[in-house]
Amino acid sequence: MGIKNVLSAATLSSVSFRALRNALLQSAGVVMLVVLWQIWVSANAFNTIVLPGPSSVFRQLASDPSFFLLNATYTMGLSLAGLVVGALCGSLIAVAAWSSRLLSGILAPLSLIFSSVPIVAIIPILLRLFGYQLHTAVIVVALITFFSMYVFTLAGLRAVPAGSVDVFRVLGASRWNFFRHLAMPAAVPHWLTGLRIAAPQAVLAAMIAEFLMAMEGLGKVLDVSSSDLQMDKALAASLVATALSVGLYFVADRWAATIIARR
Q1: Is there a single domain that holds both residue 123 and residue 168?
Q2: CA distance linking residue 199 with residue 82, whole number of Å
């Protein structure tokens, strides 16, 4: 028992060391960028109105962490709500386009148009239609995340294994069975890729909506701080938003890896 415990402890220590080493290697570029940023700001003696250094940004975060946490909670809630709506609508419309050539011919140009128009040009129209309400911001996030989910889901539905279509036809499978047992499983990896891409986009979309609609959240903090020339506070809000984007991507990536591993 003693030898087994020693070996288990040694294995655990080895795994922990490798994990720590990988984390340090992956974060080395970010640390180097922060250091160079601080050196550049200090060497040029920039005023904080022009460009604050990392030390000023981190002091701003440390001075009132509850303020940034509260606004980050608003932004994350809006991001998740819009991501769910965008993923659901994108997936359903992709299935509709896959099931009918007529619908595909109608939906493909419309989705391309909506993805090509800048969201800042669409938001005023949405505000006229739905008002300055929370559901309007959710629609904004859903519109930005919708296209990635639509494109990757549709590509996945069409990426069935070679020859499998003929097998299902010979067996007399119905359209529903073809979708359930062949097209949908083939679409899962593509759908998860779309989710990975859409997840960080949701945070950006939420901040754009908060910025333009003067809603609570990091977008409003960024707007007000920039107007008041509190650039250290604005960059602190941007740093928190970046952390949210990376965190949401990491969660989506881990979830996708878990699903793929279980298949």
Answers
A1: yes
A2: 10
